[in-house]
Write a structure and sequence with these properties.
This protein is of the alpha/beta class. Helix content is 40%, strand content 21%. It has an eight-stranded mixed barrel with strand order 1-2-4-5-6-7-8-9. α2 packs parallel to α4. The longest helix has 17 residues.
Length: 243
């Protein structure tokens, strides 16, 4: 998909959450939602993070974005007893003000254990001490951590199992090439075995068609996410409609 240029002025307040369901393959129901940032301009155009994040970073508003997304998602799900995830960056991990905002908000939030962050595998592997410190501070408030895009970069995945992560998300390309690339199959089987040993949930992400979904169902993977179920949408009610 080509990246479009944003010609309209916008602020962090114009960035809102869209919701993509993570499906429990055992029950075929929604297990939790990932909250994904979308820029909605005054002209009602929708932009992906790949199209606007560099502008947010250039204006040094990236930390404000994480806080804004969290507050919006927390408000949206306040009276919906559904687990949900939101994304944070390497800078967010080291942002004490953001961590304190999360902890303070969750102290009076209903069932805070249903809230989790998603941290990319590259961030987790490059910043193990910062991640461990973030988890140590925030887990007492109920906040969990998922490692996103596992398999997209080299690194010692076993080391991540030594910290209390709630789950990992396998990069979509791994499932796509599981049957035709020996190295991919060996890696996926290794990660699944590690997760089983440590009681870590596994999500197959970027599952875009029925062939990939059938591949996932042959593996010991309980959860999956992707367009085969639903694209990211502005309302969880739309995501729960049959597709």
């Amino acid at each position: 998909m080509p990246i479009r240029e944003i010609s309209e002025e916008f602020s962090v307040n114009d960035i809102v959450p869209y919701f993509q369901p993570i499906i429990d393959l055992d029950s075929s129901g929604v297990w939790r939602y990932e909250c994904l940032a979308r820029l909605i301009t005054q002209g009602d155009k929708t932009f992906l993070p790949s199209e606007f994040l560099y502008l947010i970073e250039r204006e040094h508003h990236i930390s404000a974005l994480a806080a804004s997304m969290f507050v919006q998602c927390a408000h949206y799900f306040h009276d919906l007893n559904i687990p949900w995830n939101f994304n944070i960056t390497s800078n967010d991990l080291q942002n004490e003000q953001l961590t304190n905002t999360l902890i303070t908000h969750l102290a009076s939030y209903p069932n805070p254990e249903r809230v989790s962050t998603e941290v990319s595998a590259s961030t987790a592997l490059s910043n193990p001490q910062q991640l461990a410190s973030f988890i140590d501070k925030s887990m007492h408030a109920g906040l969990g951590v998922f490692i996103d895009n596992v398999g997209s970069c080299p690194g010692n995945i076993r080391a991540l199992m030594n910290i209390p992560v709630r789950g990992i998300k396998l990069a979509g390309g791994l499932i796509r090439h599981y049957d035709d690339q020996d190295a991919v199959r060996e890696y996926v089987d290794y990660v699944l075995n590690l997760c089983e040993q440590h009681g870590v949930n596994v999500i197959a992400e970027h599952i875009e068609d029925e062939a990939q979904l059938e591949r996932v169902k042959r593996l010991p993977i309980r959860y999956a996410q992707g367009y085969v179920f639903s694209p990211p949408v502005a309302s969880v009610k739309r995501a729960q409609q049959p597709h």
